[in-house]
Amino acid sequence: xxxxxxxxxxxxxFCTIAESLKALKELSKQNIKIKPIMSQIVYNxxxxxxxxxxLINQVEEICKDKIIHDIAAAEPIGPKNLLDIIIVAPxxxxxxxxxxxxxxxxxxxxxxxxxxxxxxxxxLAPATNDALGASCKNLGLLHNTKNIFFVPYRQDDPHSKNxxxxxxxxxxxxxxxxxxKGIQLQPVIMSVVS
Length: 194
Description:
Shape: globular
Radius of gyration: 15 Å
Number of helices: 8
Strand content: 15-25%
Number of strands: 7
Structural class: alpha/beta
Helix content: 25-40%
Largest sheet: 7 strands, mixed
Oligomer: single chain
């Protein structure tokens, strides 16, 4: 991946943001431009996993660009053809559902919708406690949607949270590289050690 512009979007699976940041740092070592995007929840919420302003500063320093954090700023991504690929990491069950159903009420979902109109790839990095429950139908819909690719995922705690899936964030760069060629990195469903 060289000389491309990547949209890198964060949604509110706060416990996985540290892993997403590691992937973002790896991507930043390549000869690419990274445009950061955040849901309003991530942009404005302090949690036990960290303060919003610290995350904002860290992401903007890595990307060397200001974060898109409102719908109006995300909308031009499509008409201005600003990106080559979007990575949503982490992608929550809420965001999965909205993308699957065409709902564009956050900066992240607006960015994805605007980008998809250009027939370019979107990489989703799922992290949700209900992926094998209420969100399962949305996961299935998106697996069958043109230009949507998934970072390979597995059950993260099959005994305590049997509906929960989380991707392998370290595979984000490789997944994006394949997605740019129209290929889904395989296997998409990884084995779990029980």
